[in-house]
Design goal:
436 residues, four-stranded antiparallel β-sheet, three-stranded antiparallel β-sheet, 50% helix, binds s-citryldethia Coenzyme A
Length: 436
């Protein structure tokens, strides 16, 4: 099949087998590559497209986030991630993602008030945790508990009611830190900490994580700022695997809590959000700068070893979030008076060697958001198993915005990819006694 661009922003596909031509419309976004609308393709040609991993397939229109992977650009509602990380805060970014505009002072105050009204979880949920083993991975707990929220908040599960959708969205953003901190407290056998609504989102999360009822917890402003920045940097990233999972689940009409639980499950994998945990494990295994080269040789031999925290489906340049994260990492370690952090030295050297090695250069493999985040989180006192949970807390706003956009999009249908069948052709059933 040959392709050629027509005059009226269409693409003509010519079937070299039958000679038949089909003209398909080209769609144009605000910025970014044009998109061929292939919805009529099967009807007119009898062909499906084949694109495992959706490397060249757009599944939706979206107004939320834009990435230029070649230039290393990330915009939320048109604002550069560097500006948001530097000049904004997480609540403001949540508002921006949800509503499309930065809030005025009054709008922001009201939004924060509304979110903090939902920070507690149903008291009965405390008992739900007891069903888990104490050594359960916190991501396993997150999948279960967030999935169970629809059993507690069925008054906000009618997806056709905009008000219920909004309440569910606020509930999810507000309760995720509470549930995440509870998962941690449960694993170390400490009592759950009720949220404190006089603290901001990041401060309250640190308080619920590291405070105990018998002592006054003093929030370290450096840690709270770093936490807030980490939340901003993870807030949304257009149609990544977990967001696409949320959208696919949402396309069936499933309730928002169930959809976000699906997103959490998808995020857990080491190729996606689980990479921040995997980076620390990898750095621990490398152990010393002298072991970097042999480690990279194993990666290059493709014996299954991957350079975790490197590479990205969309970025073929620096992930802009990794740059902010690297800078923040230095600031946090300095503020915490950590003079020598061997893991950071190791990560910097690993990055330097990889970025000068033809294997990684030719494949355009750069550090992604997960490469430095684990080092900051470790310095802040988070156990490795909580790293992906923090990603999930931050990404909840992105997931829920994308879910809302899906529900409001009249063009969306149930997500249902097709396939290239390569199994057996139709055959006759043979009774068990006659089988050889
Ligand atoms: C996130 O999509 C998003 O937006 C995700 C995310 C978000 O905010 O939502 O940005 C968050 O998930 C970041 C990515 C975290 N994952 C990791 O750090 C795990 C390590 N990275 C890889 O597994 C990988 O790079 C992916 C999964 C991130 C991207 O995979 P692609 O786009 O399918 O790329 P590919 O597997 O086709 O790789 C192309 C080539 C291959 O070599 P060749 O077959 O061409 O010889 O690059 C190689 C790969 O083997 N390669 C790597 C590598 N990543 C790709 N080689 C060594 N180490 C790596 N990390």
């Amino acid at each position: 099949m040959a392709t050629s661009k027509g005059k009226n922003e269409t693409v003509t596909l010519i079937d070299n087998v039958t000679g038949k031509k089909v003209e398909l419309p080209l769609m144009t976004g605000t910025i970014g590559p044009k998109v061929i609308d292939i919805r009529r393709l099967y009807g007119e040609t009898g062909y499906f497209t084949y694109d495992p991993g959706y490397t060249a397939t757009g599944s939706t229109e979206s107004k939320i986030t834009y990435i230029d992977g070649d230039k290393g650009v990330l915009l939320h509602r048109g604002y550069a991630i560097e500006d948001l990380a530097e000049k904004s805060d997480f609540m403001e970014v949540c508002y921006l993602l949800l509503k499309g505009e930065l809030p005025t002072k009054e709008q922001k105050e009201k939004f924060e008030r509304d979110i903090t009204r939902h920070t507690m979880v149903h008291e009965q949920l405390n008992f739900f945790f007891r069903g888990f083993r104490r050594d359960a991975h916190p991501m396993a707990i997150m999948c279960g508990v967030v999935g169970a929220l629809s059993a507690f908040y069925h008054d906000s599960t009618d997806i056709n009611d905009p008000r219920q959708r909004m309440i569910a969205s606020y509930r999810l953003i507000a309760k995720m830190p509470t549930i995440a901190a509870m998962a941690y407290k449960y694993s170390i056998g400490q009592p759950f900490m009720y949220p404190r609504n006089d603290l901001n989102y990041a401060e309250n999360f640190l308080y619920m994580m590291f405070g105990v009822p018998c002592e006054t917890y003093k929030v370290n402003p450096v840690l709270a700022d770093a936490m807030d920045k980490i939340f901003i940097l993870h807030a949304d990233h257009e149609q990544n695997a977990s967001t696409s999972t949320v959208r696919l689940a949402g396309s069936t009409g499933a309730n928002p809590f169930a959809c976000i639980a699906a997103g959490i499950a998808s995020l857990w994998g080491p190729a996606h959000g689980g990479a921040n945990e995997a980076v620390l494990k990898m750095l621990g295994e490398i152990g010393d700068v002298k072991n970097i080269k042999p480690f990279l040789e194993r990666v290059k031999k493709k014996d299954g070893t991957m350079l975790m925290g490197f590479g990205h489906r969309v970025y073929k340049n620096y992930d802009p979030r990794a740059k902010v994260m690297q800078k923040s990492c230095h600031e946090v370690l300095k503020a915490l008076k950590v003079k020598n952090e061997p893991l950071l030295d190791l990560a910097l050297e690993l990055e330097h060697i990889a970025l000068n090695d033809d294997y990684f250069v030719s494949r355009k493999l750069y550090p992604n958001v997960d490469f430095y985040s684990g080092i900051i989180l470790k310095a802040m006192g988070f156990p490795t198993s909580m790293f992906t949970v923090l990603f999930a807390v931050a990404r909840t706003v992105g997931w829920i915005c994308q879910w809302n956009e899906l529900i409001e999009d009249k063009e969306q249908k149930i997500g249902r990819p097709r396939q290239l069948y390569t199994g057996a052709d139709k055959r006759k059933f043979v009774a068990i006694g006659s089988r050889k």
